[in-house]
Prior knowledge:
Elements: E1 4-10, H1 17-25, E2 31-38, H2 45-55, E3 60-65, H3 69-80, E4 85-88, E5 94-95, H4 97-111, E6 119-128, E7 135-137, E8 148-149, E9 168-171, H5 172-177, H6 190-193, E10 204-216, H7 225-230, H8 232-253, H9 257-280, H10 284-300, H11 302-309, H12 312-316, H13 321-339
Parallel strand pairs: 1-2, 1-4, 2-3, 6-10
Antiparallel strand pairs: 4-9, 5-10, 6-7, 6-9, 8-10
Helix pairs in contact: 8-9, 8-10, 9-10, 10-11
Amino acid sequence: MKLLSIAIPCYNSEKYMRKCVDSLLAGGEDVEIIIVDDGSARDRTGEIADEYAERYPSIVKAVHQENGGHGAAVNTGIRNATGLYFKVVDSDDWVKKSAYLKALDKLREFAGEQEALDMLVCNFVYEKEGEKHRKVMHYRHILPRAEVFSWEGCHHFAKGHYILMHSVIFRTGLLEECGLKLPKHTFYVDNLYVFEPLPYVKRMYYLDVNLYRYYIGREGQSVNEEIMISRIDQQIKVNKIMMDYFAEKKQEILKNKRLYQYMYNYLEIITTVSSVLLIRSGKKENLTKKKEVWDYLKAKDARLYRRMRHGFMGSAMNLPGKVGRGISVGGYKICQKIFKFN
């Protein structure tokens, strides 16, 4: 068994995937790199994946499949993983070698323990196109350092500060236990990846190193605001799946107040993003969709709806009239500058 399996979902990624794969090869034989060629059709992605598998047969697997989207590629990675732990690295991102080796050392320590670690958290860095300053997302004031902890050991997560796909390494078995299966042909499923497994996470460790380099700003990237608006139905789909999951698991989640508060806050920010993008589109039909999103939550869980709708962010996203929508967008732009997201 390998120590760590890393899935790289690839779709027409020939221009940048080598940098990603090369950064991961530094892990040596303890690492299994699963390159998932998700039906690439316009370039040499599949050939490059096969080339790496041929050159590093004990480290790299090349898996080819019909196009199913990012979620389908992650699902394939999990199915093919033989490592004790599992991570997703997108094909236009990479890892910092020194931090990567420290993370592997820490995973080796936990691999030898009788009780398994469920989730390792590291920092990630926004490598934003055109900006010299690198925004580091760390968890120093939220998560204990140099110790194993549970949800009770976490401090309060501030708005805009969340555990994202870039920052987590899960125990592979945990992803199987929670039955995670991401929807096909849908963007933004990374939000489900770092949401649905959380009630199953009992033992965590925070390693304060800047491991993941998250490239942002590439033309056509899924997190580009214009692209997100054009794919708003997929954002809404993910948002509703999260609402379903939270409502259905609420009684179980409520057993741990810190877990509940974190998952509530995460659902709230995703619903806020959906709302503001629908407002930003400027289309009348999308204002109707915004109402439908909130009505969906109300029908699913009226109590949850009341708390979220009448909270600060819910109120801000539902201000009446054109002026109110302008205020909502203005607040969103301020958050963009503070938190450096698209």
